[in-house]
Structures
1.
Amino acid sequence: MGGDWALFLAGAVSLAGIYVIYTLGLNIQFGFTGLGNLGYVAFFAIGAYTSVILSMPRPGPDVAYIVGYGLPMWAGMIGGSLAAGFFALLIGIPTLKIGEDYFVVVTFAFSEVLRYVLINEKWLTNGTTGFYGLERPFGEFFSGRAYEFFFLFLILVAVVIAYLVMRKICNSPFGRLMKGVRENEQVCLALGKNTYRVKMKAFIVGAMFAGFAGSLYARYATLVVPEMFIPYFTFVAWLSLMIGGRGNNKGAILGCFIFVLADQFTLFVQASAAYAVKLASLRAFIMGALLIIVLRWLPAGILKEKKVTYR
Amino acid sequence: MLTILLQHTVFGVVTGSILLLATIGFSMVYTTKRFLCISHGELLTIGAYTAYAFHVLLGWNLLYSGIIAVAVTSLVGLAIARGLYEPMEGHGPLVLLFTSVGVTFCLHGILEFIAGPSIRSFRTRILPCIRVGGIPLITMNEIVIISIAMGSIVFLHVVLTQTRIGKAFRAMASNVDLAMARGIDTARISMFVWVYASAMAAVAGILLALVTSVNPDLGWTQILIILAAAILGGLGSIYGVMIGAIFLGVVMDVGVIFFPSGYRAAIAFALMIIVLLVKPKGIFGGG
């Protein structure tokens, strides 16, 4: 029994680690730059699908899809991040110059439409079946149980690297500029800063983090299907960030761990098939209520953004 | 080909009429409260389920069930606004927007908990079809839907231009501070907006459920199209939205002749992006 617990814990912490990378990306977009990306899951999905398609073997004649490039897994992951960043660029061009409400609507619509594309374009995504039974990195060197712990190690390394990269960006002059745009775009414009470029960079970097997290998530779940990328996952990042504290990378990390703890705990509630559906609706209710409560009574999150004074 | 085109255009006007009812409320909230109220879509679902409960489960007359559903939805809409949105005013539009996302998840969870995920139908009679030149063109049901939408527009127009509260609403929409300075009771107008918007949402939800089905995702699938219609007509322009909604309905339903039907909502999105690139204030809005 003890071994099962350790295994479960390794799985949960791996998931939390992937969410941390995912949420760090939203933090640079919303927490630092104030971009309300309501379709954040789209970039997660693009990363997951691109990485899988790039590193899949060439397909045989008996499947619906016609792509698969047989690249190494790491190349797929890089490709996934780059693709997510590229789509952020495309979305950013028409939306970042006009008001924030338009940005919110377009990102939200983009994530929903992307899901329709994933379902309908069978030649590219294999439709609702998706891709399953995916290989995992270095899977051939470890047996079943030991691999879970090795995968956890890999995720933790990725989290540390992602955190250090993000800290570097946020502590740089560019980090201050992002906060400036968030607080008062007009003043930044008056100081001769190109705020459109600042927002674009933050948007692209955030999307690349989401894409990278998506490519890891595909390996964690060993499958990708359109159902994995419902708006709920946008909500996961938002809720984690709001709980932990926006504009604070440590807050993003804390928020993800709290979220995963709460989320995985509900899996232990014994439920028959009939009650599983009821439980799922109840879970949506609890998550929604949690977001309302945090926004109202804990607006800065648990770890508040540090007030920095520059002299 | 022409027959198909004509029939799809009629479908489009019906879709657009329902969309119009849903979007006007959304737009009224946006013009006075200045935030995108994502939970507006769930009010459609609440309206549809309440009408379903009274009409099918209790066997009441559809008209009475509809009136009760509109009343219930208005109260729910007002209660949510009073309890959850109004205390958050002053925290900025994004915080209100995310509160409304939280509300959406809550309402969706509650509805699915009570009603279950199954898809239900009103099982209305299909009334005889009117033929024009030998082609079945439009059913009486569809004529009723279009008439309700047109009636609502005319009614809203009269309210906005002829009544004190309508004029006060327009004053508040153009400048809240100025309206308050002129002694307009903005709290009362807010109440009017929430009740009116929720009532329209309920009507839209019931009509949509009548032509399609009642399911927990009814409102969620509509909110994306509502947002597209609102942007198309120009965010915050009540009259622009009316034309935007009908236009979008026709484009979507005519579009499915040329594109796979899975892309119906994607057509709305593509149209929205084109409009944002060419004329960000909407086709008919903001000069």
2.
Amino acid sequence: MRSYLPDYNLRAPRDLAATLDVLTQEPGVWRPFAGGTDLMVLLDAGLLAHRNFLSIWHLPELKGVEVTDTHVTLGALVTYTDVQRHETLAREFPLLAAAARETGGIAIQSRGTLGGNVANASPAADTPPALLVYDAELELVSQGGARWLAYQDFHTGYRQTVMRADELLARIRLPRTTAGWQTYYRKVGTRKAQAISKVCFAAGARVDAGRIGDVRLAVGSVAPTVVRCARTEDLLRGHELDGELIAAARASLAQEIAPIDDMRSTADYRQRVATNLLADFLGQLT
Amino acid sequence: MARAHLLNNVTATPKTKSNAETNVVGKPVPRKEGRAKVTGAARYVDDMRVEGLLHGATVRSAVARGRIREIKFGAGVPWDEFVVVTAKDIPGENVVALITLDQPYLAAEFVNHPEEPILLLAHPDKHLLEKARRAVTVEIEPLPPVFTLAESDAKTEIIWGADNVFKSYLVDKGNVDDAWPEADLIVEGEYETGAQEHLYIEPNGVVAVADAEQGVTVWGSMQCPYYVHKALLKLFALPEDKVRVVQTETGGGFGGKEEFPSMIAGHAALLSWRAGGRPVKIIYDRAEDMVASTKRHPSRTRHKTAVTKDGRLLGMEIDFVVDGGAYATLSSVVLSRGTIHAAGPYHCPHVRVHARAVATNAPPHGAFRGFGAPQSIFALERHLDKVATAVGLSPEEFRRRNFVREGQTLATGQVVREPVDMEGLLARAFELTDYQAKRERFARENEGASVKRGIGFASFMHGAGFTGSGEVYLQSVVGVEATAEGVVRVLAASTEIGQGTNTIFAQLAAEALGLDYELIEVLQPDTGHVPNSGPTVASRTTMIVGKLVESAAAGLRQTLQNAGLLGATYTTEEWRAACRAHCERYGALKSFSQYQPPPGIHWDEGKYQGDAYGTYAWAVYVAEVAVDTVTYEARVEDFVALQEVGKVVHPVLAAGQIEGGVAQAIGWTLYENVVWQQGRMLNAQMTNYIIPTAADIPPIRVYFEEQPYPYGPRGAKGIGELPMDGGAPAILNAIEHATGVSFTHVPLMPEALMKGLLEDA
Amino acid sequence: MSDETAATAEITCTVNGVRRTLSAHPLARLLDVLREQLSLTGTKEGCGEGECGACSVLVDGALVNSCLIPVLQVAGTKIETVEGLASDAQLHAVQQAFIEAGGAQCGICTPGMIMAAVQLLTEKPQPTDADIRNGLAGNLCRCTGYMKIFDAVVRACQRAGEPT
């Protein structure tokens, strides 16, 4: 433990209203603390810069999965284990189920939350590419009320988001519009389990009479934020797949990502593998 | 269905060919300390509860090489509450006594590697201690560092001694210069291996109590209590009986707790000494353990090989260099083992090996399972595939034509006097893996496939015990005593670190005495109570020390029989009665045994010629791989480890040793990449230095052949290091089969694999 | 920054069937509290970053890394550690199987590994090869190469299927 604990605070407000109250009264002083799978690592390493936290792990308002005719809505505290166990998610949102299955080991999956994965805003997170493909929407709540926004508009830069200091990520909503899509999820992290992604690729497409009816592509660990690759999607949409189109799509994707060298991998590797994965995905479409 | 499938695939019950009749040896008796380990009752050093404990921490160098200017204690810390130790507080000599006396416990004026210890702190509150550690700044005037083996070898900057060379060896068999003109073909190659972190799951840790009156006592996680003992004698300038070292349950070593514990033990003891004898505990966290402790030596090997057109080896010239880091530590010995194994189990009339260990400004590299041999064997077994291709033979046919046979000589001129059958091992390994059929099928199916499969092998040997006259020099001693109740206790400094020392010793003693395994106890290694049976290293514990256990136990029986208390055959009750009678009449019943070399062993340390080891274990390992050309990730899909190891004392433990060693070899080959930045490990977290998980390791299928070694206990040889040797070359040979690309370094990370495949295409 | 210093939290939970009141900084790691306050040293620290699984325990039946749980968050929960598995002299089937199969070598990963195996067999009494591999993938072992651990899990579920 490389942190001096008396320098830190963790409180558990009674309920959601009390939590929002603290966030409003002392904006920026307190930050939410969910399952701890990221924050405790930083605390142990002596790298946790922020000092004061509100535990939200116990708040029932942020838990559970609700299924309606048009949407599946997940509380921010839904864990990777919860995702894997939920039938509708497993059936209709296989990318999310795959991402949950491949994040950490069982013990991490018990505690890691979707809300944490999103709010933590790491470009290497494993569920955001899946959420982007599903056109997820986020609900941010504060004492002043709630607002919904497209997840695509949430990240503004490396570990930067549009969330205000008095807001809390409450729910994640997935429109049920992708049933029957062909999907593809690959997390590349050298080892099969318990890895941090070097590249994380999620994609879905609907093929209508030999043409790509619709397509969505998202990639993690290749830019300061997870990237939804809209230009490449546009290039593919409505076209028949052939070698030339795949080559063009590869070239386009390469323009939409900006990977870097770090201790885990190289920019060259990430670039090449991301485009390989795209080609692999397109090659498997039927 | 699922379970049947599992049993077939996963439970590699070793298939053995056995001959000797035994009661306990060769049986899978329960591990002695197994119950304590599965219930959480086993006490590791951090589990010790100590009254009045201080926690210790180490302030380390932030730079690779330089001169210490000033140490500053920052504000906001109650420094008067802290125990502080610097080099000037050392009561004896400021040097870690091992082989060469060059490494200080605390840097006094110069630092020679990042993370070198400079100052020690202790305080009752471990959180405040950490705050204090961060508040110390050491101003260091930098000096030009050397970070790579190549730079050190080129002597661009002299950082150690006169020439950066810790040690060099020359092995000369025949005259390799005679081979070149006779050769039909000369094949050259260069091979490199990277550092490897041990990543025992229990980090280094000790508790020490030390003062001038009582002397020094240390409890800790370690492999070699008497190494620590020797080091503390010098550090404190104390007589032998004033220093006591006790091994606590140890959570893995693999060489990483061979020499390093002398350092951390000395640090904790210095703090306790300064604190007037209050107990001090130092437990490294994972980051400190990874960044500051030893790793496997990186290496570079150059081969130049002369062959005839029908594939006979004529001459081998091998240049083998290891990077020793900043201080000499064990590099000379690691280099030695790598040198002796560099030409492998082949007969070649002319062999010359030039070997040297050189200095760099990185933390010292140290002992790690295999001890230099995995490095030189990797190079050889990769190179021989290249030579085979050059002469137009398959890798197996080329090796068949050159395997050493009984009566022929190895590189040091050692005549092989045991019935070695490498060809037989090769044939059986191929049968077990369906090698030939897969070799053809994969080649056919890989065309156009995005996942390409391959199969490859390595054939090799590993010497057991200390090199040359090492065992004679050690003069190891083991004691066995019996209580009045007839309980037999083994007294040895050899440590249980997971490999099964307690169990093996108890089996051998039980077998020697014809008693139940349950009647035997193995005492906790404590230099205050056990004789020096030597370090727990070098695949020597079963073969060398086990033999001493056996003969000391036999001595016990003989004592009772000579006293007329025990018949030629006896029941357990008669044994107990005899022990009781002996203890009543004569007092303690003990027997000691000291190492005697087998007859006819000759070793010339100066010329590096002769019988390098009393015996070798011989092996053929086969790896099957899948290379994904989308992600450039290579995975091992099947692994067969076949070895001749003498008598298998415990089939489950022996297979466990092989499986664990193979898994470490797979890690070293495909996953474990130490990222260096200015001599410092950048990825010193388990998150970023990745070892294979349960999801990554293929079925490891272990097979033994047993050719009893006359001088090992019940015919046993050493096996601990062997499984580290064959994995890397077998896997890279398989990758070449899969992809057609010959890779020459490990770890082969996906980034490098990509580069190789793209350059080839 | 708040200038309020963190108070010590009083937390009540059940550990191995015994109700306990713990007193610690709310961010203290569950691992440290178990080891230092309750002397339950069977739970080990291997990395402090949720990678190795040596500190695995069950909280309300879920497998967790106790190094990543602030003690405040276990208020009102049921915690099980390796010390709670055996009843009197009778080892848990998984513990017994680890001894027989050689699933424990150095033993430092063993308590966490056993907790993961217990949780796996609770979830999936008849696991496939893939289930076992995935179920244990968060628990690193450096000694065994995992083969004997898989063997132990298979033995344990075979034993569970036998009539007692």
